């Protein structure tokens, strides 16, 4: 990857388009060639409007979305970290929706590519906790009141992530009634198959005995573990030579599930350090609510089946 225009080169010296290539004792031909080389290597600095970089990235928009509500200098990192998390949620939803479509069309390699990308993205998302990981109660209290009733569980994009994981609840649409577009997107996601539903559909099309009650369940409800699905996964893992592709799919899903579990636990620990057992800003039970969430595994049979292999 090249450096940004105007950035130092490997030697630490910024390129200068006006630097002469002539040196003491050099011929005119040599000097002219050096000057031409320097001009050819110089970055284009003259644009009629905004830079192509700005047109693509819209950095000016991104860096002016921080509307602080307090005078505390620590609020900036809290807000930017939260906004960065929202961007990662958006990327991960994109990957899981890509994987879901591919599974529906029996394109397992395409789904695997999307899942593998999402694993790296989940790792980056989890690292987003680091700037807030040692926030003390006094530091958080300095701007916590400015948040009002704002809380992470009100994040619409995170809710779409949860829905794709099979963690569905119609009540989670209620906070978004005042935002028609967001509400409509969430309602659509609520009634669509989750990523795991698409996986189970694929297994059924491969001739594996996934129960009809699981395949035809109410998609708007939370996925509940099935002993029959557990047995299917146990059979897959018991014969990796015969079921290599499905084992690899199961492991990719397990990577996702593990990182989701780590995300929830990192959230729990950061919250416990910052506010102890106090009620959450959104009125939830705070740490107690997060503890309950952290105990749940997504794609549950992928974990329990291992005891039977």
Structural class: mainly alpha
Helix tally?
Answer: 14
What's the CATH class label?
Mainly Alpha
Poorly predicted runs of 5 or more residues: 8-24
The percent range for strand residues is under 5%
Give the CATH architecture. Answer: Up-down Bundle
Radius of gyration: 26 Å
Give the tally of β-strands. Answer: 0
Q: Work out the count of structural domains.
A: 1
Predict the CATH topology.
Answer: Methane Monooxygenase Hydroxylase, Chain G, domain 1
Largest sheet: none
Order of helices and strands: HHHHHHHHHHHHHH
Distance between termini? Answer: 45 Å
Brief write-up:
It is built from 14 helices and no strands.
How does this structure look, described?
With 309 residues, the chain is mainly α. The protein has a single domain (78-140, 155-308), classed as Up-down Bundle (Methane Monooxygenase Hydroxylase, Chain G, domain 1), CATH 1.20.58.480. It is 56% helix and 0% strand. It has 14 helices and no strands. It has helices at residues 28-41, 52-57, 59-62, 75-104, 108-127, 137-144, 156-164, 180-191, 195-205, 212-215, 227-238, 244-275, 287-294, 301-304. Helix 4 (75-104) runs antiparallel to helix 5 (108-127), helix 4 (75-104) packs parallel to helix 7 and helix 12 (244-275) packs antiparallel against helix 13. This is Tryptophan 2,3-dioxygenase. Residues 1-38 are annotated as: Disordered. It catalyses: L-tryptophan + O2 = N-formyl-L-kynurenine.
